[in-house]
Amino acid sequence: MDSAERVVSIFRDVSGIAVVQIVAIVVIAWVALLVDQRVLPLLAHRLPARFRLHVLAAIPVVRLLVMIVAAVLVLQRLVDPTLENMVALLGVIGIGLGFALKDYAGSLIAGTVSLYENPYRPGDWISIEGTYGEVKSINLRTVSILTPDDTLVTIPHNTLWNSPVFNSNAGTTNLQCVASFFLKPEHDGQAVRQRLRDVALSSPLVKLSQPVTVVAVETRWGTHYRIRCYPVDPAQQFAFITDLSERGRAALMALGVQFALAAAVAER
Amino acid sequence: MSGAATVNGNHGASQQDDVPLWQFVKQSEFRLPSPVLDVRSIQLGLRGFVRGLLGNRRESESPLEAGADLLALDDARLARLVPSPEWSAVAQALSDHLQPWIEQQNTHKPVLFLVGAPYGGRLETLQALAQSDPFLHVRAPDWRAIVGCDHRWFKSWPRGTGVWVLTQLEKTCLRRPDGLDLVRELLARALSGELGRGIIGCDSWAWAFLRHVWAGRPAFSETVQAFDHARLARLLAPPDEQHRRHHFRQADNGVFVLSPPRSADSLRSSTGFLERLAAYSRGNPGVAAAIWRTALQLLPETGVEPAISETDRRKLDTVWVKPWERVVRPELPADAGMMEAVTLHALLLHDGLPVARLAEMLPRARAQISETLLYLAEAGLVRHCEDDSWRVTAIGYPVVRSFLRVNDYLIDQL
Question: Does domain B338-406 have CATH number 1.10.10.10?
Answer without folding.
Answer: yes
